[in-house]
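Task card 7
Instruction: Convert sequence to structure tokens.
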Amino acid sequence: MRFIHLFISAFLLMVLASCEREIDIDLPNDEELIVVEGRIRPNEAPVILLTKNQGFFDAVPAGLEDFVNSFVIQDAQVIISDGVQSEQLQFTIDFVNYPFFYYTGNVIKGEVGKTYALSIIYNNKVLTSSTTIPAPVQIDSSWFGLNPFDIAEDSLGVSYIQILDPDTFGNAYRLYARKNSFQFFNPVSGSEFNDDFVNGNNIVFFAGSADQPFIAQDSFVPREFFYSLGDTIYLELASIGRKEYFFYATLGAAVGSNGNPFASPTLVQSNIKGGLGVWVGMSVSYDTLYATN
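Output:
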């Protein structure tokens, strides 16, 4: 009986080997799309970064100048309107303020409750969007706590934030943070949430350290994800609209499932007609805490 099993196994191996052949797949060229990362906040001018999408197998330029010239759109017509006046924004290179290469203006500034229409014309394509700046929701309190996933941890932890959600349905939030001498606020992964199930209630949530731009997140490094005892933590809670919330939530899900063969594909819900990305009105509240045990 054992001989029969070995014979069958050897036969199957020969059949599989004889069926092997090379298959050439002609992949279609990716359609060029415009990616928008735009925001407007109270008392601030709009900031809009425009880039091009990239083919999955395309090489990424190594140098900064080549990268900017290949992906950053510098000659688009970008117009913003608040319903009363319109302004054509100008492309700016500014290494003091992130994202460094963006369109901005000096006439229209953000106001709570106002709606702002965005129009972009580039390479015979027209993109449109609109967003409203919601009222800010204050951070009631914040504190530091050691890593809740490891009871033996004695030096790494997270920030806890408490807010009182307004009793009007439809509020949404995204948390930004920076620590110590870092210059820029950056988004905290997975910090987007809305009030679908907690409308009008006190909300307590915890968050790790903010993502750092231009740093590959190929592996989990505890000291990058958590705060350390002694850190000074600066928090920025952004109130955003529901459409904008769904963009950030689905974007986070798509990034988190990238490369996972068992994860379902996620369609990122952009609020840009004719392109990809987000145009978001946000109002912010701030708090500072110290990582002490």
